[in-house]
Amino acid sequence: MPRIFELTSNAVKGDEEAVALQAVEFWSSICDEELEIQDYEVPESGDSSAPHSQFIQKALPTLVPMLLETLLKQDEEQDQEDGIWNLAMAGGTCLGLVARTVGDSIVPLVMPFVEINISKTDWRSREAATYAFGSILEGPSIEKLSPMVNAGLEFLLNAMHDENSHVKDTTAWTLSRIFELLHSPATGFSVITLLTFKGSWCLVGEHKRFSTCGREGCGAIYFLAQGYEDAGPSSSLLTPYLPDILNSLIITAERTDGSDSKLRSSAYETLNEGKARRFASLSCEAMLAIGALAYAVGPEFGKYMQEFYKYLEMGCRILRNISGELHRSVKPPIFSCFGDIALAIVNTLKFLELVAKDKAEG
Question: Which BP terms in the Gene Ontology apply to this protein (predicted)?
Answer without folding.
Answer: protein import into nucleus
